[in-house]
Automatic annotation (TrEMBL):
A Pfam family per the record: AAA
Record-linked Gene3D superfamilies: 6.10.280.40, P-loop containing nucleotide triphosphate hydrolases (3.40.50.300)
Protein name per the record: AAA+ ATPase domain-containing protein
Co-factor requirement: Mg(2+)
GO terms assigned for molecular function: ATP binding; ATP hydrolysis activity
UniProt xrefs under PANTHER family: BCS1 AAA-TYPE ATPASE
Catalytic reactions of this protein: ATP + H2O = ADP + phosphate + H(+)
UniProt family annotation: Belongs to the AAA ATPase family. BCS1 subfamily.
AAA+ ATPase domain ranges (all copies): 246-382
InterPro entries (UniProt xref): AAA+_ATPase, AAA_N_dom, At3g28540-like_C, ATPase_AAA_core, ATPase_AAA_CS, Mitochondrial_chaperone_BCS1, P-loop_NTPase
Listed GO biological process terms: response to stress
Record's keyword terms, sorted: ATP-binding, Hydrolase, Magnesium, Nucleotide-binding
């Protein structure tokens, strides 16, 4: 072997030894960093390395933080939902969550995991970055109880610099649009109510079984309402074209026990909309009312039940703020400004429902056209509604006693709730229906004695 060959071989051995040493040192350093170095220091060093190498790269990184001030960043929330559909077999760590009444598992990417997406042939890389902040004066809007170490989360989206306009003008709007569809598909319905101490919305899972199929409502009224709801959610372009806020108002009126609350739940289940149940008596002034109304989400139902007796709503011409803190000063004009005033445009695809047992007691300002678009009379039980109840509770479509029962229902005023209560008294169909006949007969005699 020549001296030249021996020299090349020695050089190669030296190079391989150096590479092996560097690799071993890197593995050791990585192990030390992961096992002994605090997360904060680890994140700081990693962030520094990424920034250093970015100066020599053709890549650009868009940082998408979870919050903008105290408000949720829509792009962050969209990315969280969208990337859950892009998790591949190469992903090492994922987060899995499921609430008790949730039908689907929620899967999201874990911190420092890279998710690669392809859009119009362009490769885009996402990484969830988390860093901890221990400063006492730092408030994380997600950490409402201040019991956890505050965590700041952001997504880093990396791509070639020449595709910046495409990412900002096409890709991110696409992500937001896709995320909205994903979240709506797997959404768990919630019902919100006002916390009396913080005067803010709190929520629980809405698990009401009412649907339009099971609702004991006049078939023609039910048909018209379903058609109106379906038309409403499909007319975003129409509302924009005519210059109206994308909202719809319904007034449900009728005696107690006629199914007003069940109808609201059926609407929520039909549209997959959350419910915000607003108790006006828990508010002190219009400012609190406006703050609550502004914090309701799109694709939701705002419900004010028993509006005729929930608070003294005066005509807007006599509305005056009372400076006495012990006096409730939520005014009719404050409510109507959200229903059809300037504040009504602050939000899209919203439904407003007022309920009352006595429509004649309502201020005429509430009944003006354009405020409550549909007035739905929740009447006493009808023969058609009775058949729906019999199908729901007894799983029958006909019976020898139906004709007699329907005749009584035509003659007297009985609510669907009263009929439903009778249908639950036994597992025997014959016994239940006979008991209903006796109940209706007694009710008729009572009515006749009062006449």
């Amino acid at each position: 072997m020549s001296s030249s060959s021996e020299s090349h071989l020695a050089t190669a051995k030296t190079a391989l030894t150096a590479v092996a040493s560097v690799a071993a040192a890197a593995i050791l350093a990585r192990s030390v960093v992961q096992d002994y170095m605090p997360n904060e220091v680890h994140e700081y060093i990693s962030h520094g390395f990424r920034r250093f190498f970015s100066y020599f790269s053709y890549q650009m990184t868009a940082v998408i933080e979870e919050f903008g001030g105290f408000e949720h960043n829509q792009v962050f929330e969209a990315a969280e939902a969208y990337l859950s559909t892009k998790i591949s077999n190469s992903t090492r760590r994922i987060k899995v969550n499921k609430l008790e009444k949730q039908s689907n598992y929620s899967v999201t990417v874990e911190r420092d995991e890279e998710v690669v997406d392809i859009f119009d042939g362009v490769k885009l890389s996402w990484i969830l970055v988390c860093r901890h902040v221990d400063k006492k004066d730092f408030r994380n809007p997600r950490d409402l109880n201040s019991t956890l170490k505050s965590e700041v989360r952001s997504y880093e989206l990396s791509f070639r610099k020449k595709f910046k306009n495409m990412v900002l003008e096409s890709y991110l709007p696409f992500v937001v649009e896709q995320a909205a569809s994903i979240k709506q598909k797997f959404k768990t319905l919630k019902i919100f109510t006002v916390d009396s101490y913080s005067v803010e919305w709190t929520s629980v899972t809405l698990d009401h079984p009412s649907t339009f199929r099971t609702l004991a409502l006049d078939p023609e009224v039910k048909k018209n309402l379903v058609e109106d709801l379906d038309r409403f959610v499909q007319r975003k372009g129409f509302y924009g074209r005519v210059g109206k806020a994308w909202k719809r108002g319904y007034l449900l009126y009728g005696p107690p026990g006629t199914g007003k609350s069940s109808l609201i739940a059926a609407i929520a289940n039909h549209l997959n909309f959350d419910i915000y149940d607003l108790d006006l008596t828990s508010l002190n002034n219009n400012a609190e009312l406006r703050r609550l109304l502004m914090s309701t989400a799109n694709r939701s139902i705002l419900v004010v039940e028993d509006i005729d007796c929930s608070i003294e709503l005066k005509d807007r011409s006599t509305d005056q703020e009372n400076n006495d803190p012990l006096h409730k000063t939520v005014t009719l004009s404050g409510l109507l400004n959200f229903v059809d005033g300037l504040w009504s445009s602050c939000g899209n695809e919203r439904i407003i429902v007022f309920t009352t047992n006595y429509r004649e007691k309502l201020d005429p300002a509430l009944l003006r056209p354009g405020r409550m678009d549909m007035h739905i009379h929740m009447s006493y039980c009808t023969p058609a509604a009775f058949k729906v109840l019999a199908s729901n509770y007894l799983e029958i479509q006909d019976h020898i006693l139906f004709e007699q029962i329907e005749e009584f229902i035509r003659e007297i005023e009985v609510t669907p709730a009263e009929v439903a209560e009778q249908l639950m008294r036994s597992d025997s169909v014959d016994k239940v229906l006979q008991g209903l006949v006796e109940f209706l007969k007694a009710k008729k005699q009572i009515n006749n004695s009062k006449a």
